[in-house]
Each structure stands twice: as C-alpha cells, then as structure tokens.
Design brief:
Layout: E1 11-16, E2 30-33, H1 47-60, E3 75-80, H2 87-90, E4 92-93, H3 95-107, E5 112-115, E6 118-119, H4 124-139, E7 143-147, E8 165-171, H5 185-190, E9 192-195, E10 200-202, E11 208-210, H6 213-231, H7 237-246, H8 261-272
C-alpha cells in the first residue's frame, strides 16, 4: 500500500449488492455502477447494500478513513445481483443472475472480479451457466477472487471449484481459520486465507461498521491482487494467481494457508527479471 494506490486503468469488478456510492469516504473513488439499480440510497439499511458498501470500502475507500481502502486508485465497476423479487431482503442471488453479471462486468473491462455472495440452490442449467460465465471471464483475461462462504462446512460451489477462481477463507489473528469458513478440496488446493479480526469498513449514513468473514477476506485478497497487478501491469491472470497462492507456506487437503502479499510481490519481481 506504500508503493501504490492502484492504477486508474485497472478495472476491478464488484459483483455484490447495490453500493452506497455517495458515502463520504468514496469522495475520491472511481466507482462505475453498470445500472441505476446498482446504486443504494445513502440511508440504506438492508443487508445486501451494507455488505456491498463494506466490500467496496475495503477496496476503494479513502486511505485516510478507518476502512482499509487498499486500492483506492483503481476503477471499481459494480453490478448488483439482487434484482429478483425478494432477493435484496433474502440476500440470496440466483446462479443465472450471477452468470449474467459476470459476463457484463467482464465486457465492461474488468480484469479482476470480486465475488462475495450467497447463491440460491440451482439445478444443472444454473450451474452450467455459472461455469460458462467463468470460462468466458477467463478467456477475456479476467481473474476472479471469491469468498469460500461462511457455512461452517466442508464443500464448495460451482464458483470455488472452477480452476480460474482463487477461493478465499477467513483467518483469525491467532492463526486459526475462521470458525464459520467453508473449506474443501478445491479451496485447499487453489485458495488462500486472509485475517479479518477487528476489521472495520463503511456503513450507512456515512458511518462505519464491523466487517468480517470470508467476504471481508476475499476483499482483502482482491485488493492485494489489484496492487500487484498495478505494479506489474504486464502480468497474466495466471501469473498473479500463482504469485498469490504460492506465497502461502503450507497446504492441507481442505484448508488454504494465509496469503503473504510481500512474498507475492517478490515472486513477481523475480519473474520479471
């Protein structure tokens, strides 16, 4: 974060809920909602708007705020997936809506996409739509970072099982994984973790709120990747993914280790030499 705030021409996609873009801590941020309904009112109190605003705060809030504001220099492209009747209250998106959003943010130029959302159970067609959208994003040169989930289970989803995705779990400061983090074989092999204890981000009415779990962890990893990509703009998505995941020190069958961003930076610097 001392080296760069992120490159303005790096477009980062945020697929989540509607964002409170008029929050005072976004005053200097480049936020581009794809549709009018991707913007939440300043006083919005529903869970999906607060979640999306907190996630955006980890990424592009002012560095002077109490939110992390890891990469405020990038351009954030936002797309809400909670458009079906009742979806904004339930906080659950359909697989078809996620697939459509993935294609849209990729077509809008996003090279890095953050996913932190709860998917409704779907059938074979929905899973296939998500897989095809992730394939499309990969072909377009985009890297997807996704929260593993907070289901306190061993498993995965069509998102975390996809080879073009970096799944993320939450860790506590004591080095233990978050109590509710979902883990699984694909998450353990290709994922990383991030510490989220005590993290604070943006909320309603220009205020702050606690923010944790795998959603916060995914935002931290997305922010780190955005800074790395800004520092090494010629890197490929595969190189970035390897640098971030190989920065971890140990692997188990279902649980990924914590990301070491400094080590990832050294790996990319060495590769460029």
């Amino acid at each position: 974060m001392d080296r760069t705030a992120g490159a303005p021409d790096l477009r980062v996609g945020l697929i989540d809920g509607p964002v409170i873009v008029k929050h005072r801590e976004f005053s200097d941020a480049r936020i581009e909602p794809l549709r009018a309904r991707d913007v939440a009112d300043e006083a919005a109190q529903d869970a999906v708007a607060l979640h999306a605003t907190s996630t955006a705060g980890v990424l592009v809030a002012r560095r002077a705020s109490r939110a992390l504001g890891i990469c405020p220099g990038v351009t954030l492209v936002t797309r809400s997936v909670y458009t079906a009747p009742g979806a904004r209250n339930s906080g659950t998106a359909t697989q078809e809506e996620l697939a459509e959003a993935l294609v849209e943010v990729t077509d809008a130029g996003a090279r890095l996409v953050n996913l932190s959302l709860s998917l409704a159970p779907g059938g074979r067609e929905g899973r296939r739509a998500v897989e095809q959208a992730l394939d499309y994003a990969a072909r377009r040169g985009a890297l997807v970072v996704a929260a593993a989930g907070n289901d306190q289970a061993v498993g995965g989803s069509p998102v975390t099982r996809h080879p073009a995705v970096v799944p993320v779990v939450a860790y506590a400061r004591n080095g233990r994984p978050g109590r509710l983090s979902t883990v699984g074989p694909s998450i353990g092999r290709r994922g990383v973790g991030a510490v989220t204890d005590g993290l604070v981000s943006l909320g309603a009415h220009g205020g702050l709120r606690p923010f944790g779990g795998t959603s916060a962890a995914a935002a931290v990893v997305t922010g780190a990747v955005a800074l790395l990509w800004s520092a090494f703009p010629d890197s490929t998505p595969g190189e970035l993914a390897r640098a971030v995941t190989d920065s971890a020190y140990r692997r188990t069958s279902v649980l990924p280790p914590v990301m070491d961003a400094s080590r990832a930076l050294d790996a990319l610097r060495t590769a460029r030499r």
